[in-house]
Inverse folding.
């Protein structure tokens, strides 16, 4: 089935992870930055990861080429054009302000570049969106709180807060106070948990951070009581198949547990995570699980439906996408 033609939503994409090597090299040139790579091919060849941390080291280094409002606009616009090409009608994107502000880029520069592209895409591409501010969990809880405070003047343009970066050793509990504060300000919450970390981190994301969705969450299967809870409450998992293979969470796609998670009754969604680094955008992730796991057309449609059900779109808009998808089932 050409899942490219199905209307879909994407709920787990780090905008900095959509920085293609071509754009990395072009922005380095534009901003007078010397990269430790001789060519676009050399950048791409460096994308061999053994785990999450080995990827993050490169990802944070790559993000240094992003300096101006125009850079953030161009990055976001290129991703949104991909969305339009692949029938991604709605996207809820993560951004990592600390990656930029800690090297002297004002929050406003990052925010304006991204939000201007999101606005233009609504009008020119018919792609709707939401913005999720992620805290870097390898940094302190105090630094996260300071980042939230910096973001509050822009609160109306931000849908939710999230938690990303190095998972092991940085449990959700570390960020309980900042998530409490974010919720008090009316923001929704999500969190990466159970990518490399144990099921206990998923419990903490739910109980302490009140996460509406779990980003990744594939390790939930190690705790049957947790699976039961996730099924009963239909707490969505934003699963990222190509990412999980590139970061060695599973050895190969045929071993990925996405189909098993669906069979258990979980609300599973498919997402690209960091498409420029992991070899594909949303449609390529659908294709990869379809062929490796033998998903049926009905299961692919279910995944597309789940993407809208798990989104933060108002119920009426979700319903209208579900109706549009009904003709495929
Ligand atoms: N930041 C970007 N991609 C990430 C991932 N897959 N896990 C944690 N933090 C990230
Ligand atoms: Zn992620």
């Amino acid at each position: 089935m050409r899942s490219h033609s199905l209307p879909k939503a994407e709920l787990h994409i780090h905008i900095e992870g959509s920085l293609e090597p071509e754009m990395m090299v072009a922005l380095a040139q534009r901003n007078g930055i010397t990269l430790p790579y001789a060519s676009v091919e050399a950048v791409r060849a460096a994308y061999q990861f053994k785990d999450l941390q080995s990827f993050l080291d490169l990802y944070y280094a790559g993000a240094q080429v992003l300096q101006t409002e125009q850079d953030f606009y161009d990055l976001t616009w290129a991703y949104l054009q991909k969305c339009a090409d692949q029938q991604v009608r709605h996207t809820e994107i993560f951004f990592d302000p600390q990656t930029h502000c800690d090297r002297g880029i004002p929050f406003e520069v990052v925010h304006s570049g991204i939000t201007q592209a999101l606005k233009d895409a609504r009008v020119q591409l018919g792609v709707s969106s939401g913005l999720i501010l992620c805290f870097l969990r390898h940094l302190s809880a105090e630094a996260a709180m300071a980042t939230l405070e910096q973001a509050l003047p822009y609160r109306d343009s931000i849908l939710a807060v999230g938690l990303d970066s190095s998972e092991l050793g940085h449990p959700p509990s570390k960020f309980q106070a900042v998530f409490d504060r974010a919720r008090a300000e009316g923001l929704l919450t999500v969190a990466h948990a159970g990518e490399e970390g144990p099921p206990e981190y998923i419990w903490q994301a739910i109980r302490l951070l009140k996460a509406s969705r779990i980003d990744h969450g594939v390790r939930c299967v190690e705790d049957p009581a947790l699976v039961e809870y996730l099924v009963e409450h239909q707490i969505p998992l934003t699963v990222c198949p190509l990412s999980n293979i590139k970061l060695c969470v599973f050895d190969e796609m045929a071993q990925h547990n996405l189909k098993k998670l669906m069979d258990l009754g979980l609300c599973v969604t498919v997402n690209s995570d960091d498409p420029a680094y992991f070899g594909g955008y949303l449609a390529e992730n659908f294709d990869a699980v379809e062929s490796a796991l033998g998903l049926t057309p009905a299961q692919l449609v279910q995944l597309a439906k789940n993407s809208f059900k798990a989104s933060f779109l108002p119920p009426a808009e979700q319903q209208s996408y579900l109706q549009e998808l009904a003709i495929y089932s």
Summary: The chain has one domain: 3-322. The chain has a mean pLDDT of 97. The beta strands are 8-14, 88-95, 128-136, 160-164, 188-193, 213-216, 237-239, 268-270.
